[in-house]
TrEMBL record:
Protein name (Swiss-Prot/TrEMBL): N-acetyltransferase domain-containing protein
Gene3D superfamilies: 3.40.630.30
A Gene Ontology molecular function term of the record: acyltransferase activity, transferring groups other than amino-acyl groups
Pfam families reported for this sequence: Acetyltransf_3
Record-linked SUPFAM superfamilies: Acyl-CoA N-acyltransferases (Nat)
Taxonomic source organism: Phycicoccus elongatus Lp2
Positions of the N-acetyltransferase domain: 1-39
Length: 88
């Protein structure tokens, strides 16, 4: 899902940069972003409000269009393919 969203953001919308954030202890979320090629740019101590736990640590991830385009071969090799190839 994240890869499809990044493909839309860069290829269809034409964005230069995409960011995402999650709670620091949500390893599933930050692993998905890392697997999609995003890098951790910020770890914020108690910067995110959680309804059940109050203030918790958060992480911010980002990727540039140039990084996304440069990783296309790696995505295909990893079996991710591309939304466009699925449409053909």
């Amino acid at each position: 899902m994240v890869r499809a969203m990044l493909e839309i953001a860069f290829d269809d919308v034409g964005l230069h940069r995409v960011t995402g954030s999650c709670f620091a202890d949500n390893t599933g979320s930050w692993r998905v972003m890392e697997k999609a090629g995003m890098r951790r740019e910020q770890y914020g101590v108690q910067d995110s409000w959680h309804a059940e736990h109050g203030w918790v640590d958060g992480c911010t991830y980002a990727i540039l269009r140039s990084e996304w385009e440069g990783s296309e071969g790696q995505r295909v090799a990893a079996g991710w393919g591309s939304r466009r190839s699925a449409e053909v």
